[in-house]
Design brief:
715 residues, alpha/beta, six-stranded mixed beta sheet, membrane, Acyl_transf_3_dom, SGNH, Acyltransferase_3
């Protein structure tokens, strides 16, 4: 293997590892995976073009070599990780890891990520902040799926008579393939192998360019003055140094536009492959970098489970608020050159944000509209205090285990013959299957807790997902809203039995309408003639894709309620910086103006402090491992209010005479904190899907009782 290629592997795995270790600092490190994809494209093309693909055995030989290189180590790490999950993590994390371990066995983790991220109520299962030890295997799923089709791609290219035509074909594939990758839903494109083909094709470009110019190198520095027109003042190794410098932007401490930096990194990697550097000290004279490339595959497999287990066991301090702290650094003497670096005022405590590379447009479930996740306020970053203590042991354990696996397992199995390899891989697959079965059927897995801790776990788990199956005091007269898309899209609708009053009340929104509906209805004590609610997945009541807001409008226009509650947790769109003639504000005002024509009073739930997904599981892990540090899970009130200030300001700009915007956050506030659990009962106020639990409902009763009295007295 060329040393320069191994050095590129070394750089790539360093970038990825640094990103996973300190993503708030090395915010572009995820681009190391893109380097791997280009290298894979080049190596597969090189291997498959050594001789013409003609026979079935040419395919089987290629697949065997790939499987021999990858599967024995892959299935061993999956097996070890799966076993450790049941001894290091609480059982409430098992389901997530069960799902993703199964997908990993079939090398389809990337496909499961796509599925879960598109399901509104499964997004938290795919959340990169949760201890999912198999999450990083998405990239190997992409690579293995590429390997399956690579021989067929090269077989098709054989139809072209010259290497020049082949180069043009793969170059067009790279350019054209980048367009849908850029335009389609970011999370889908990130994980979907066909939309990554443009990067593998960039590796193909490097190969065929080398074939077209087998002896040609980049211009060397002029050694004579005889032919000044054919020389450049800089040589090939200077170009290589510039290329390496470009790749170093992967660890630049400020987020770069991924739509710009990703193609630059991809093409730079292809250029460095073509350059075939043999002298550059940056790439080749660092033996440690070459060795890192040699063990890069093992490091990639091992580092994420190690980081996950250490962060769980040692600190488990979570970035409950997705917000940012940064400092602008100006180069002395060059005032125009400044960068915003996401460091706190001091380096301790270090900051942490696992806001994966998907902090870019994603599709709102079932809406057909592309929403952009909020661009956090540049004055804030998530606090991840004691995580700094995880870095050193995680790094040491990753290095030691990778070196041991490389010398004691990987090197020996690569010397085995095909019968031994097939036997080894089959044994590992069987072992994985048996463990998968055992953890579901046998009870000796996992940990045993004291009765007091077990009671707390059971009580908190029982309060999960009450919004999905609310404890209704009265059966719905009908759940059929007479809409053709109701069953397909999971709209929740309920018309309750008539009360003994005269008010007509509607509650509309998203799952929060379902979550809080009974708390609202209880406070009216049946003093209404009609009460119904409509919960639309991904709906926000006052702004949305047109077909969702039209549905709300139809309901209000049809039933003409006296009192309209708009109960929704808002999307991150509403937290984006406010623009002049702000589109969201205009949309809210347009819909409110329509509602005012048909109702007498409107109550709008204001913006809530942001708590991370899977909060309940994080809370329970603290209860088990670090009960003395539970207070760390409460939110700093100033930081939380700063994070949602744009949402609050947008709602303050609503023009509505019949509206009242009410804020539930004060009921959770105490001594500068927003409480996330009851300090006396150790019961969480928030569940995994960021809905309010039964314990939290008790805090809301005075607020909704006041609103009910006001509506009854004034309408």
């Amino acid at each position: 293997m060329r040393q320069d290629l191994q050095s590129l592997r070394g750089l790539a795995i360093i970038f990825v590892f640094l990103y996973h270790l300190y993503p708030a600092i090395f915010v572009n490190g995820f681009l190391g995976v893109d380097i791997f994809f280009v290298l894979s494209g080049y190596l597969m093309a090189r291997n498959l073009t050594k001789k013409k693909i003609e026979k079935f055995t040419d395919f089987t030989t290629f697949y065997y070599k790939r499987f021999k290189r990858i599967l024995p180590l892959y299935y061993l790490i999956v097996l070890i990780s799966f076993i450790l999950v049941h001894y290091y993590l609480g059982h409430f994390w098992w389901e997530i890891n069960w799902r993703y371990s199964l997908a990993s066995l079939f090398l389809s983790t990337n496909q499961l990520l796509i599925t879960d991220s598109r399901e509104y109520f499964k997004q938290f299962l795919a959340d990169e902040k949760s201890p999912n030890v198999f999450l990083h295997l998405w990239s190997l799923g992409v690579e293995m799926q590429f390997y399956l089709i690579a021989p067929f791609i090269l077989l098709a290219l054989q139809c072209l008579k010259s290497d020049t035509l082949k180069f043009i074909a793969v170059l067009l594939t790279t350019v054209i393939g980048f367009i849908p990758f850029l335009l389609l839903n970011a999370h889908f494109a990130f994980n979907f192998m066909p939309l990554r083909l443009w990067q593998f094709a960039a590796g193909f470009c490097a190969l065929f360019w080398s074939k077209i110019n087998p002896e040609e190198e980049l211009p060397e520095k002029s050694k004579t003055t005889d032919s000044p027109k054919r020389t450049l003042p800089i040589g090939k190794e200077d170009f290589v140094t510039v290329g390496v410098a470009v790749l170093i932007f992967c660890v630049f401490p400020s987020r770069l536009d991924v739509h710009v930096i990703r193609p630059i990194v991809t093409l730079t990697t292809a250029f460095l492959i073509v350059a075939k550097s043999k002298e550059n000290k940056v790439l080749l004279k660092l033996d440690a970098l070459v060795y890192t490339g040699n063990i890069s595959y093992i490091v990639y497999l091992v580092h994420w489970p190690v980081l996950t287990f250490f962060s769980i066991k040692e600190t488990f301090q979570c970035n409950l608020l997705v917000i940012f702290t940064s400092h602008k650094v100006t180069v002395p003497g060059l005032s125009f050159l400044s960068v915003t670096i996401p460091f706190p005022p001091t380096m301790a405590p270090f900051l942490q944000s696992r806001s994966h590379h998907q902090v870019i447009p994603k599709e709102s479930p079932r809406s057909g509209r592309r929403f952009q996740r909020a661009t956090p306020n540049p004055s804030l970053r998530p606090y991840y205090g004691p995580f700094r203590f995880v870095a050193v042991p995680s790094l040491v354990l990753t290095i030691i285990s990778s070196v041991l696996f490389h010398h004691l397992y990987e090197k020996p199995y690569l010397q085995l013959n095909w019968i031994q390899i097939v036997s080894l891989v089959s044994s590992l697959i069987l072992a994985n299957a048996l463990v998968q079965y055992s953890v579901r059927e046998h009870h000796f897995w996992g940990r045993t807790y004291s009765p007091a801790v077990q009671n707390l776990i059971d009580a908190n788990e029982a309060s999960q997902y009450n919004w999905a199956s609310p404890n209704l005091k009265d059966e719905c007269v009908t759940k059929d809203m007479k809409h053709p898309d109701q069953n397909a899209n999971g709209y929740a609708y309920c018309l309750f039995p008539p009360g003994n009053g005269t008010l007509k009340i509607n509650d509309i929104g998203n799952s929060y309408a379902e979550n809080l509906n009974e708390q609202i209805r209880d406070q009216f004590h049946y003093n209404y003639s009609e009460f119904r609610y409509l919960s639309v997945v991904g709906g926000f009541g006052t702004y949305n894709a047109p077909y969702i807001t039209d549905m709300y409008r139809q309901q209000v226009e049809k039933y003409k309620p006296d009192v309209l509650f708009i109960t929704a947790r808002f999307s991150d769109d509403i937290k984006l910086p406010i623009k002049e003639n702000d589109e969201i504000v205009q949309q809210i005002n347009d819909n409110i103006k329509f509602f005012e024509k048909h109702v007498k009073k409107i109550y709008i739930l204001g913006s809530m402090p942001l708590v991370r997904l899977n909060f309940m599981n994080h809370f329970l892990q603290y209860v088990i491992n670090k009960p003395e540090d539970l207070e760390q899970l409460n939110l700093d009130q100033k930081i939380a209010d700063e994070e949602r200030k744009n949402a609050v300001e947008r709602l303050n700009r609503v023009k509505c005479e019949k509206c009242k915007i009410y804020d539930l956050s004060p009921v959770f506030a105490k001594n500068g904190k927003y409480l996330t659990f009851d300090r006396n009962t150790i019961m969480a106020y928030i569940d995994n899907s960021i809905h309010i639990t039964g314990t939290g409902f008790k805090l809301l009763e005075p607020t909704y009782a006041k609103l009910a009295r006001e509506a009854t007295d004034t309408v």
